[in-house]
Write a structure and sequence with these properties.
The protein is an alpha/beta fold and about 300 residues long. Helix content is about 40%, strand content about 20%.
């Protein structure tokens, strides 16, 4: 939880955050939706958001030994189900790559997927306007890194937000031994090394404090109509014995949309990467985030 002294300093302007542009910011959400349940909750939160210009929802791979084949298509199916339920199939939702960038032993060869091409198209469109395109990766960074490798000219037109890594804020130490980063370490290193790319990181060591109790969550979802029923069933299907769930992906999305509920600082990339400055979230106000999430979902028509 954000400490009162931090909130005081933020209000006084003593701790400036990275600028959040005024107006409707173009955004693409890139989600490994079938991996866990919190991606769907993040997507549901974003539905109807008026502060941004939501350009598209892309699907990300999340392959590991227990995941089965073609994980990106599993994510794509869930994306399409929720968009159909919400009456938003008009929103572009191109499929992403089903394998990592490069090879298992390294390399930055891009995956030329519909999602990567869509990111390139939207970044070039944003370049003609006043706002950078936000690409938010709540899974592996394969699609974004591939788009940047395919079209390096777009890097100055993008603000990248990623969920991943762990970070010890007291000692300034990075840890790449984390699920999303392990799903495509090559892509993660590519984004860290890309000078000129504005990069913001929500480490799981920060997002991990955003935890919801199942019984309380289910009681609220029962009041949220068809989308609530869908989200509840996803929890039951994916984690039938889970009494608590960490809303990693929702934490990043809400921190972006409400910077007053998060603290972040400019830090240097890990020592094995090209040294440059990136932004990293170090704390969130999880109580304010949860209150806002349910206010939004329960007031949905």
């Amino acid at each position: 939880m954000l400490r009162p002294i931090f909130l005081f300093l933020l209000a006084a302007g003593a701790l400036p955050l990275a600028a959040q542009p005024a107006g409707r910011v173009p955004l693409i959400l890139d989600a490994d939706t079938a991996n866990e349940i919190d991606d769907l909750y993040a997507i549901a939160y974003l539905l109807g958001e008026e502060a941004i210009d939501w350009r598209g929802l892309t699907s990300a791979q999340w392959f590991h030994q227990y995941s089965g084949d073609s994980t990106v298509y599993q994510s794509q199916r869930l994306n399409e189900e929720l968009l159909a339920l919400a009456g938003r199939t008009d929103l572009p939702h191109p499929v992403g790559a089903d394998s990592i960038m490069g090879m298992p032993w390294g390399g930055y060869e891009p995956r030329n997927s519909p999602a990567a091409r869509f990111i390139i198209e939207q970044a070039r469109r944003a370049d003609a306007g006043a706002e950078k395109l936000v690409v938010m990766c709540i899974g592996a960074g394969t699609n974004l890194a591939s788009a940047l490798a395919l079209a390096p000219d777009i890097k100055h037109s993008i603000r990248a937000y990623v969920l991943g890594f762990q970070y010890d804020a007291d000692r300034g130490i990075w840890n790449k031994d984390e699920f999303n980063i392990r799903r495509d370490l090559n892509a993660a290193n590519y984004l860290l090394n890309l000078e000129g790319l504005e990069l913001h990181v929500m480490p799981t060591s920060t997002a991990g404090q955003y935890r919801w109790q199942r019984d309380t969550t289910f009681a609220r979802l029962d009041q949220a109509g068809p989308i609530g029923d869908y989200l509840k069933q996803r929890w039951i299907d994916h984690g039938p014995d889970a009494e608590v769930w960490t809303m990693w992906d929702v934490a990043l999305l809400q921190a972006f949309l409400h910077p007053e509920w998060a603290s972040k600082r400019k830090v240097t990339t890990p020592p094995e990467n090209i040294p440059r400055d990136v932004w990293i979230y170090t704390d969130i106000d999880e109580a304010a985030m949860a209150s806002d999430f349910w206010k939004r979902l329960l007031n949905r028509p």
